[in-house]
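ASSEMBLY PREDICTION REQUEST
Request ID: AP-0331
Submitted by: J.K., bench scientist
Number of chains: two
Total residues: 508
Priority: normal
Notes: Please return the full assembly, not individual chains.
Input sequences:
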Amino acid sequence: MSNIRVRFAPSPTGGLHLGGVRTVLYNYLFARQQGGSFIVRVEDTDQGRFVEGAEQYIFNCLKWCGLEPDESVLHGGPFAPYRQSERKPSYRQYADQLVKEGHAYYAFDTPEELDAMRERLKASGSGSLQYDHHIRMSMRNSLNLLPEETEKLIKDGVPYVIRIKINANEFVSFTDMIRGEMEFDTNNVDDKVLLKADGMPTYHLAVVVDDFLMQITHAFRGEEWMPSAPVHILLWKFLFGLDAMPQWAHLPLILKPDGNGKLSKRDGDRLGFPVYAMDWTDPKTGDLTKGFKELGFLPEAFINLLAVLGWNDGTEQELFTIQELTDKFSISRVHKGGAKFDYEKAKWFNHEWIKKLPVTAYLPQVKEIFAAKGINIDDEAYFITVLNLVKERCSLLPDFYEQAAFFFNAPTSYDEAAVKPKWDEAKKDFFTMLIRNYTELEDWEIETAENTCKQLATEKNIKIGELQMILRVMLVGSKMGPGVFAIASAIGQTDTCKRIENAIAVFG
RNA sequence: GCCGCGUUGGUCAAGGGGUUAAGACGCCUCCCUUUCACGGAGGAAUCACGGGUUCGAAUCCCGUACGUGGUACCA
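STATUS: Completed
Returned structure:
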């Protein structure tokens, strides 16, 4: 194993979003390709946003996707704990070190004071509402207070935060693996809080400290993090040195299909498609949000469609196995621009994977769908032949029920509009005769069923095409499904005859 | 407002100085099948706009527009 180490750092606040899974995927592919390690670190530093069950849910999603971490809360590892709330004691010293070295300071401003400050700035027509070098000398912090005043406030238990001190008139730059050289003017960067009043680190301190402690070599994250990148770079510089810093890659966003903007759960609800990997029930409201898995997506397809949303290998290939992806993936071919999510294409991917995979790969799930509809499968071999017969007309797993239910239940109603115009005494005669002929057959293959029918048609001088359509409706109830004789062969000799008989009775 | 990032067909996208500007999804027409699907054959973009640079620009530069992200003691 190489010493390449990447990490996915979700915050357990709710369902796992498409974009999150894609970030996991890119991390995973990169790690596997480089022979490195894939770590999942839970970023639960905001106690106010903690959601019961969200963490376990995230791991369930990863498992379904087949993107198992090498190290995590669940998988353990040499850098445990992997939950930031449990690492709380380790952050403080770094914040203290920064204060001691003059790169950070104590700030005692209350939320009300901060609001007032922003109001003041807004009123004065200032272009920036940030807590930065412009205004920090007018706030209540250790830069502005006498050392003994600061000490007293701390001793008195007045709540405070530690903020990074960003110097004016400097440039911070780094190379992004996707976007190339990036440069930031520190005049536009604010004095971000590093340690909150409750003693927990903010994301900014925690990522840097943990990425260092966990020896992360490459850090992939969504592009919404780009504006705070200079803070992280500076932290690295102050704390651990730029040489130890991971390489950054800021991934493009996944956008909503209509209009613009970041794709959110709401868009899925509104437009009728899933956004989360798996079903998510909000423990507070009890609201259920449907997931890709439950709607009948195959993990292979889900991974595939996510991989090519913002990346391609430069060829025309669109269908990739996870192995092919790990072989071919390259961060440098990831797009800079966001991509709108297209549910139609997502379904196409699933359709392709349903066709591509052996039906046994998803047979258990389909079986469950049938069971839920009251059809219990006891003959698995038969089920397999049925699934193979209809797989190319199924985009989502539940489609199998619509496409194959008639293999298990004789039709109870018929598309009479299609049959009526063609139904007459001669046809009735024909099918009555057909039952007799079928009953006499010794073997029951597709060919024998077909030849017997055609032979009789020739004898009776009726066009086979018309007959086939009627036979289909007799067996299926409507004009759908695979070849008629394939159906007849599958449902069996006696059942075929019985269904024809029933239909004749209905058609009159 | 300020700062950053982005912009090739409805969507995903290849292409990065000279191409008839690939391919896929979706849509439409046709063939196959007296069903549907699969599979074929075809149809629809001059590359956001405006200036440059150049013999030549979708490709390089500068503006503008639009979009989007950030601007929290959230991640």
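REVIEWER COMMENTS: Chain A has a mean pLDDT of 94.
SIGN-OFF: pending second reviewer
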